[in-house]
Amino acid sequence: MGERGRPGEPGLRSSRLALGWLIGGEWRFHPARFLLTAVAILVGVALGFAVHLVNGSALAAFDGAMRGVNGAAELSVRATTPLGVDERLYPRVARADGVADASPVVKLDARIGTTRLTLLGVDAIRAAMVTPSLIGVRPPGLGQDTGSPFDEDAVFLSRAALTQARTAVGRRIVVTANGRSVPLRIAGTLPASDAATAVAVIDIAAAQWRFGRLGRIDRIDLALSDRDTADTALRAMLPADAILSTAQTQNAQGDALSRAYRVNLDMLALVALLTGGFLVYSAQSLSVVRRQRAFALLRTLGMPRGGIVAAVVVEGLVIGLVGASAGLVAGYGLAWAALHWFGGDLGAGYFGGGAAHVVFQPGAALGFFALGLLAAFLGSALPARAAARAAPAAALKNSGDVLDPRQSVPWWPAAALLVIGGGVSMLPSIGGLPLFGFAGMAAMLAGGVTGVPWFARTLLAPLAKRTHGSVPGLLAVRHLHGAPGEAATALCGIVASTALMIAMATMVTSFRGAVDEWLGQVLGADLYLRTTAGASFDPATRTRLAGTPGVARLAFSRQIPLTITPDRPPVSLIARPERDGRDPLLVLIAKGSALPANALPVWVSEPAQRLYGWDPDETITLPIAGRTRFVVAGVWRDYGRQAGAVLIDEGDYQRLTGDEGRDEISVMVAPGQDIAKVSDALTARLPANLRDQVEVGRPATLRQLALTLFDRSFAVTYLLEAVAILVGLAGVAATMSAQTIAREREFGMLRHLGLTRGQLTAMLGIEGAIVGLTGALAGIGLGLVLSQVLIHVINPQSFNWTMTTRIPYATLLGVAAALTGAAAVTAVLAGRRATANSAVQSVREDW
After folding, report:
1. For residue 434, which of 57, 407, 716, 797 is within the disulfide window of CB 3.0 to 4.6 Å?
2. Cα Rg, the chain, nearest whole Å
3. Are 528 and 697 in contact (CB under 8 A)?
4. In this predicted structure, what is the pLDDT of residue 543?
5. How far apart, in Å, are the Cα atoms of 822 and each of 216, 705, 731, 749, 776?
6. DSSP state at residue 409
7. Which helix (H) or strand (E) holds 648?
8. b/e string for 572-584 if b means 16 or more Cβ within 10 A?
9. What is the mean pLDDT of residues 85-105?
10. Residue 494 half-sphere exposure toward CB, CA atoms < 13 A
């Protein structure tokens, strides 16, 4: 017995030999199929990993920028608006229980030439105890005449500010902030600040005096002895125009603003990986069909079902291993290129175009590697189970789709998934993210792909009943009608990618159309003037501008950020003449009833209503001049401010705040006047120190700029859509090619029955066109359904905007034509190879 070996060893060795023969032989004779499926996984993993790396790197850069500006204080008291708080709050905060030390700060948006930066005024003695990274230092060997942190004309710049302004320590520069331009000398640098953050620091007294901020400060940085005690004491004493803030809440503001955009990009990037999984499924299904007789022979010779499953799954895992590994490398390269060319916000404007560097994330790398393996595994496991379940005796005589044409294809699984997906997508968001919306879309997508066999059978049923027509056409229709599962295998990837592309295209078209229409409504003036770097139009300047010849009417407004909660981005507070709310430029979508006597009206934007629950007729409290109560007089449509906006009457604003500055002007030109000449006349009447701080624009220019920014923010979306559809098209090409080559014996038999090569080619072209058209119709129909979830569920839950559906008919026709043509051409090209052999050689295996 010992010499004969252990029981089962010969069977085990033969199984291993068979597995090696099956896998190695398939790779040797069909390397292109393995390469294509590996590339599909590679593309999906690369796009997903790249988008994730870009998002994480952008947030890391944003966090670094916040540290550079804030100085990493343990806790800060911050003003709710750029108007600041009374500086008399500082000694009260410094003496509060639990506070060890406090440092007052003036914070202004500034510029040096065209370089924008943050200007901080600090008390060097106090800041040294609380935020030492904001203390400037002179480089070694530099003379004492460059100034110290206490000198009124000394400024210290971060490395980024020096680089961006193209200046150096010791030089004199002009810093513009709060409408004033002040000459200063660069006394040193801020070596501890973040390398990508443009910051300038001067003495706080100089900042208040020279930039018109006497008596006001913007924040108080704190060092604590007892966090809980300090938190309790400070909350009890803070005025309504100040809030407590930490580094975590500051980062949460940036995260909240861009989170929905980042999650949507992540989901869209995974579409390519999903399509790659479908492509693996298509390729493995056809490989199984082509090797069905070989599997049956091995089963007859004693190989267990598990051996067949193992062979196909191992193939898939190797494909996933190769594709996912290469995808991580490609994803890192794509992330570097995206950050280099588009910035950390990928052109969407969330992070102000700040510089960001790739931050490698091991956890994300492992996650996307696992997703790539999972997609390849699932794409192989289903065909493997089908191959293992086939009866060996029947499989030895049959191959291909053996579904009885007279047997109906079930429709209820697809319908059930569509209904479940629709119901799930209607559930509320989780933490402000439409997770159920995405889950519902996934279920609906699975339902649509599951229903492709039924859809193909139903679509072809009337044509299959025809008895007259060309022979190639009749044969093509009968073949596809009798083998809907084979058609579905070819279509699953393209239906998925097409549906998602159509859904995104419909959403983007609807969104862009809504923005375009809204811009046409709100840009009703002939000219617009806007200040930069914190400048404003004072009353004297406004009076002088109002007397400009050719001007029919001027409307002045003020727009400042208003912090409602520390962990959310500020809403925009807009003050302009709007007492009755009848301004046609205010696009109201909901109105309140008559205002109570002496009530202060406020109009809130749609995003503000959705974020804070401010409904018409509701009384709300805003941190303006204390805690002022307003009555919501209406809700207006606004596509320009995702974080929300509130609009109050200009007179109410000035009475409450005492702020006489205005930063925007809309100009109506008198009839018959030359707009360009009026623009020049307005600019000439501006004070000399204000002319380079005012931007003048026309409605057409502003509208085009807004739409350009819109298109740029969706540029990555278009790219991801294109990649997904290309992967799907590659899947159709590979599937049609493999199916055509696998039917070589069928073509030989048809040649014996009298069909010419030209007729066979025509038959394949018709089959390909039908498959492409079927996939296009299924994908377009499913995409239009999915677009309603994007438009009416995911978009409002993500960005707080609503819109009506606009269907991109030209895109639909183009996609249908492209898919039909691509499938037909692929089938014809593959058919040339399959029909090249003689009829006798093609059917030799049946002898």
Report:
1. 797
2. 34
3. yes
4. 92
5. 68, 37, 11, 27, 11
6. P
7. strand 645-649
8. bbbbbebeebebe
9. 94
10. 30
Listed in sequence order, the DSSP H helices in 743-756 are 744-752
Task: Report the alpha-carbon distance of residue 815 to residue 779 in Å, rounded.
Answer: 10
What distance in Å separates the CA atoms of residue 380 and residue 367, rounded to the nearest whole number?
Answer: 20
Report the amino acid identity of residue 834: A
Nearest C-alpha neighbor of 495 from the set 461, 456, 437? 456
By the 10 Å C-beta count (0-12 exposed, 13-18 middle, 19+ buried), 336 is classed as middle
Contact 799, 607 (CB under 8 A): yes
Tokens of 605: 């934007």
The residue behind tokens 């109410």 is 652
Retrieve residue 714's tokens: 């969706």
pLDDT digits (tens, 9 = 90+) for 494-510: 787 788 888 888 988 99
Do the Cβ atoms of 845 and 745 come closer than 8 Å?
yes
CB contact set of 365 (below 8 Å; sequence gap of 6+):
49, 328
Q: Could you tell me which residues come within 8 angstroms of residue 712 by beta carbon, excluding any fewer than 6 positions away?
A: 347, 348
332 and 46 Cβ atoms separated by less than 8 Å: no
By CB neighbour count within 10 A (0-12 exposed, 13-18 middle, 19+ buried), where does 314 fall?
A: middle
The residue whose two tokens read 């804070």 is: 612
CB atoms within 10 A of CB 124: 17
User: Got the DSSP string for 250-317?
Assistant: HHHHHHHHHHHHHHHHHHHHHHHHHHHHHHHHHHHHHHHHHTHHHHHHHHHTT--HHHHHHHHHHHHH
| Strand bridging mode 527-531 / 694-697 | antiparallel
**For residue 464, what are the CA distances in angstroms to 105, 225, 455, 772, 827?**
80, 84, 14, 18, 20
Residue from 827, 836, 683, 712 nearest 768 by CA: 827
* C-beta separation of 567 from 703 below 8 A: no
77 forms bridges with which residues in the sheet? 220, 244
Q: What is the pTM of this model?
A: 0.79
Tokens for 374? 């999972």
Q: Name the burial class of residue 282, with classes exposed (0-12), middle (13-18) and buried (19+) by CB atoms within 10 angstroms of its CB.
A: buried
Instruction: Report the alpha-carbon distance of residue 311 to residue 305 in Å, rounded.
Output: 10
- H helix or E strand, kind and range, residue 157: strand 154-157
How many whole angstroms separate alpha carbon 759 and alpha carbon 476? 11
pLDDT band at 3 (very low <50, low <70, confident <90, very high): very low
7/298 Cα distance (integer angstroms): 20
Residue 137 has φ and ψ, to the nearest 5°, of -130, 150
Question: Does the pLDDT of residue 363 top 90, yes or no?
Answer: no
Residue 514: both structure tokens together:
């809504």
Alpha-carbon distance 465 to 40, whole Å? Answer: 39
- The greatest distance separating any two alpha carbons of the chain, rounded to the nearest whole angstrom, comes to 115
